[in-house]
Amino acid sequence: MKSKLLKRLLIALGALLLIVAAILLTGWLQAGRKQERRIDVRAEAIALPTEAAALERGRYLFSSRGCAECHGADGAGRKVIDGGGMLVIAPHIGPGPGAVTANYRVEDWVRAIRHGVKPDGRPLLIMPSEDYNRLTDADVGALVAYAKQLPAMSHGETALIRFPPPVRVLYGLGLIQDAAAKIDHSLPPAAPVPEGPTAEHGRYVAQMCMGCHGPGYSGGKIPGGPPDWPAAANLTPGSDSVMMERYASVDAFMAMMKSGRRPSGEAIPVMPFPSLSQLNEVDLRGLHAFLKTLPAKDAGNR
Questions:
Q1: Tally of CB atoms within 10 A around 224
Q2: What confidence tens digit (pLDDT) does each residue in 15-65 have?
Q3: Residue 83 phi, psi (nearest 5)
Q4: What is the pLDDT of residue 10?
Q5: What's the confidence (pLDDT) of residue 302?
Q6: What is the C-alpha to C-alpha distance for residues 226 and 242, in angstroms, rounded to an integer?
Q7: How many whole angstroms separate alpha carbon 224 and alpha carbon 195?
Q8: Do 196 and 190 meet the contact criterion of CB atoms below 8 Å apart?
Q9: Cβ count near 25 (within 10 Å)
Q10: What is the predicted pLDDT for the residue at 1?
Q11: Domain of life, per the record (predicted)?
Q12: What is the pLDDT of residue 203?
């Protein structure tokens, strides 16, 4: 009797292990297929400005929206993540030999920035295009024009991405998505909104927060991030959130964004403060005004 029961248990355990192995293998193989899939996205060429004010706008966006933090202030690329079994090196995107953008047409820049898609139709990994999809034509044009006039570099980084096995499997199974899978590619470019310390302008600025905090700004575990990264904070006034209670005043909010520290002096981990600290007062005041309008959500609902 006992031997029969043990035999059944071993068979059940073996079957379970086979199922788990099949799921893991499916995720692993499917990840490779997803990385090589072709996405048909039509991107229109836009005008690239040459006037000083527009190039200054491009410089501001490059430094405050995460471009410099990943690709370097000179556009030569840099190591972005190296830990938790994950390695990410962002490529050279400025002028010079070996740049991934060396043969980009204007529409290729637009496709990469707005849609997270390479010129050959494959998805860009790690690139947070969901944060940039709703940038106006003027801002995308200014950003590209600025990047194209950076000083030429004779040597730059080549893109390299190594996922730890669990992340690769989750990506293959669709539990982690690349930006191209998240974006509604049919949306037209965003219409410009007046700049000012308003919730309307803040909504435009807050697009840069969606990659980590989610489209609903309720935070949670950051998809595709290293396993040791903490969950992104809930930016809504949910019952489990202290974000807007702690930073109810715009002055406290701006001090945190500029310093990377809580009112207690404690450093805030993971947040991209090299970029966020570059936001100007108008953008910060608008962002704070917008966050105060968010409806309450439970943390982690993205």
A1: 21
A2: 888 898 888 888 889 989 999 999 999 888 899 999 999 999 999 999 999
A3: 175, 160
A4: 81
A5: 66
A6: 25
A7: 33
A8: no
A9: 12
A10: 62
A11: Bacteria
A12: 96
Q: Measuring CA to CA, which residue among 229, 213, 190 is closest to residue 276?
A: 213
Question: What are the tens digits of pLDDT across the range 183-214?
Answer: 999 998 899 999 999 999 999 999 999 889 98
Owner of token pair 């390299």:
160
Asked if 262 contacts 231 with a C-beta cutoff of 8 angstroms, the reply is: no
What is the CA angle 97-101-107, rounded to 5?
150
Entry field: residues in the chain: 302
**In angstroms, rounded to a whole number, what is the distance separating the alpha carbons of residues 253 and 291?**
11
Q: Which tokens in the block code for residue 300?
A: 């982690």
| Range 46-74 burial, b when 16+ CB lie within 10 A, else e | bebbeeeebbebbbbbbbbbbbbbbbbeb
pLDDT of res. 114: 96
Distance (Å, whole) CA 228 – CA 27: 22
Tokens 């490059």 belong to which residue? Answer: 62
Beta bridge partners of 89: 79, 160
**Can you give the pLDDT at residue 85?**
87
Residue type, 238: G
Reduce the DSSP state of residue 123 to 3 states and report it. strand
C-alpha to C-alpha distance for 79 and 220, rounded to whole angstroms: 25
Q: What is the pLDDT of residue 20?
A: 86
User: For the CA atoms of 209, 222, 117, 23, what is the dihedral angle to 10 degrees?
Assistant: -160
Q: How far apart are CA 292 and CA 300, in angstroms?
A: 18
6's CB contacts (< 8 A; 6+ apart) are none
Q: Which residues pair with 87 in a beta bridge?
A: 82, 162
Is the pLDDT at 301 greater than 80? The verdict is no
